[in-house]
Design a protein that fits this description.
15 helices; globular; Glyco_trans_4-like_N; alpha/beta; six-stranded mixed β-sheet; Rossmann fold; Glycosyltransferase_grp1; hexosyltransferase activity; six-stranded parallel β-sheet; Glycosyltransferase subfamily 4-like N-terminal domain-containing protein
């Protein structure tokens, strides 16, 4: 079967969607399928990183798209980059042969519409893998006016492409409910979360100590936020906690990753002169186990308006590590669904808008001090292992291909 994977990011980029798509591509190749990827030639978080326009990596044909790489500093810059990606991707897809299945992720926004249009021209099935919902996300973040002309046009395109899909991959029950509300038949929706990165993420005591020593954290209680820093994940309560707890010199806040809100973290640190905040870029897969294992308390944040629009995929790696975690988000969310499956102990939940409660939980976790991984969390993590969830996703893709 010939499979096309369409997304802005792919290997060797380090952002989450690149990692998931890379692992899916390798799984499809191992299953005997012919795999082609169309992605950007620039790094997602750092456009200065450039990748070859074409290469064959581990048997996977990668076609990369030129974009100007203007970055995320302004909306117009993003718009130009997105438009360039769309135009270049269209030209590449028109010259490629027909695929049995086209799997579309969601970056840049509405890329599944392009994938759907190409299958209408050439044939084959389309399977959107919804990592985030747009324009829903743009409306929830305040970037687009609900009911405005632009939002109505984008929503029309979104609904059209989703209703043409052979299968749609939703990441949780809240996302599936949103899709059904848009008119997607329930029987088309396959609900499964992303998997933990089993090959790279495990609790690594040696890596933990090395990473902490490298960044001056050896004697610290490390509160970590790792991943995409975006308006979907409001970090105000964590930043305020760092400000209020600056006198607790043993507590240190570590922000690892990228995204538009990382600069906000840096500005907050510099404006208040906070020595208890460190920021680091995304870590390569080879260092990911040591980086994530270095935390004493992980944090997972979800803004109230974004339930069912984005998915807190970092939670699965945290469960696999067995390190205590604190969730900040609404009661009705996938995070709370997961927390109810764990016995009370090394996890805490606080609703957004309660920074004093966040500080209280951080101090409580610091008193208990992490010593060894939680076996209950690691046991739950096995349900989200790559060997389990990737196999199910590949089966869904194969079924779509047979029906096309």
């Amino acid at each position: 079967m010939r499979v096309l994977l369409l997304n802005q990011c792919f290997y060797p980029d380090h952002v989450a969607t690149a990692q998931y798509l890379t692992e899916l591509a390798l799984g499809l190749k191992e299953a005997g399928h012919e795999v082609t990827v169309v992605a950007s030639s620039r790094g997602y978080d750092n456009p200065q990183n450039r990748y070859p326009s074409h290469e064959v990596w581990r048997g996977i044909d990668i076609q990369r798209i030129w974009t100007p790489g203007l970055g995320k500093g302004a909306k117009w810059r993003r718009l130009v980059d997105f438009a360039s990606f769309w135009l270049s991707a269209t030209l590449i897809l028109l010259r490629l042969k027909k695929f049995d299945v086209t799997v579309c992720l969601t970056s840049p926004p509405l890329i599944s519409t392009l994938g759907t249009a190409m299958t209408k021209i050439k044939g084959g099935a389309v399977v959107p893998w919804i990592m985030d919902l747009n324009p829903d996300e743009a409306v929830a973040a305040g970037w687009l006016k609900a009911g405005g002309l632009v939002e109505r046009v984008l929503s029309l395109l979104q609904r059209w492409s989703f209703r043409q899909a052979s299968r749609i991959i939703a990441l949780d029950r809240f996302m599936a409910a949103r899709l059904e509300a848009k008119g997607v038949p329930a029987e088309v929706i396959h609900t499964d979360p992303p998997w933990s990165h089993d090959a790279a993420v495990r609790y690594d005591e040696d890596g933990r100590q090395a990473f902490r020593a490298e960044h001056g954290l050896t004697e610290k209680f490390v509160v970590m936020y790792s991943g995409n820093h975006s308006p979907c994940h409001p970090l105000d309560a964590l930043l305020e906690s760092a400000h209020e707890l600056v006198g607790q010199s043993h507590i240190h806040f570590l922000f690892v990753g990228g995204g538009s809100e990382l600069e906000k973290v840096k500005r907050f640190r510099d404006r208040h002169g906070l020595p208890n905040i460190t920021t680091l870029p995304y870590q390569p897969m080879a260092k990911l186990a040591g980086s994530l294992s270095s935390a004493d308390l992980h944090t997972v944040v979800l803004g109230d308006p974004f339930v069912g629009i984005v998915h807190p995929c970092k939670i699965y790696n945290i469960l696999a590590l067995g390190i205590p975690f604190l969730t900040l988000g609404p009661k009705e969310s996938h995070l709370r669904d997961l927390a109810t499956q764990l016995p009370p102990g090394d996890h805490w939940a606080v609703e957004n808008g309660h920074p004093a409660e966040v500080r209280k939980m951080i101090l409580l976790a610091a008193e208990r001090r992490f010593t060894e991984p939680n076996p209950a969390a690691q046991s739950l993590a096995k349900e989200f292992a790559m060997e389990v969830l990737r196999s199910r996703l590949i089966q869904v893709i194969e079924e779509a291909g047979k029906e096309s």
